[in-house]
Amino acid sequence: MTAEQTYETPDCLILPDRRAAEAALAERIAAQVCAKPHSVLGLATGNSMIGVYHALVGMHRNDGLSFAKATSFNLDEYCGLLAGHPSSFASFMREHFFAHVDMPRDSVHLPREDACAEYEAAIAEKGIDLQILGIGRNGHIGFNEPGATVTSRTRVVDLAPETLAANQRDFPAGETMPSHAVTMGIATILSARKILLLATGEAKAKALADALEGPIEPRNPASFLRLHPKVGIVCDSEAAGLLSSTRTHADA
Ligand code: GLP
Fold first, then answer.
1. How would you write 70-100 as a 3-class SS string?
2. Is 136's C-beta closer than 6 angstroms to any atom of ligand 1?
3. I need a labelling partner for 248 at 20 to 30 A (CA). Which of 26, 71, 169, 233 fits?
């Protein structure tokens, strides 16, 4: 059986390891941009995404993949960090993607805590063709923590204790990370034409199983993705470890 034969509902592609999952997601983003150079991309941060951006940068350098006509909107950002803070998502995106590809600076959009309504309006005007998501250990998407409603839009949120515990490692030793963030809402994310979520590693297995097979409810914000008609999940076998056995693994 090949990996391409493992789609389920919602489309779920289970690959043997993290690297294969990252490459598969990068290929799908590249295919979107090739098919529609003016694509509007919703972009995500997080350690899961580093390999995806690395692969896209490789395709830009070696295969001529161009983002010159594309536009991007990032999902979220910490509140209260000074411009250029190394742990900001703006810095993450610059370091892993924007500094290495040809997307014009004017086409890059990052959320700001003091301009939520403007961000929402800009997204509504352009429309996101492909939204990329990671998933938090508690099922968060963007920074829509448990309790987020399906009607939520771009806004400032409190970060959940488990997110503070998980993300503190991304900040310099001795520095306390922000307790708030600005994030696209669930309704903002669901307004995208297509959505692809990447989940890798055992730490995401419970959140992914709850999202795909538990109730659709605010307790697991990623479960709301099942309300969208065009959602794909790309994961590795570790993250897929708690999915029901009716789902077929690519390495089975
Ligand atoms: C981050 C981001 C999310 C991301 C999630 C998982 O902090 N707000 O967009 O999907 O938490 O991150 P990681 O890939 O580092 O586990």
1. CEEEECEEECCCCCCCCCCHHHHHHHHCHHH
2. yes
3. 26
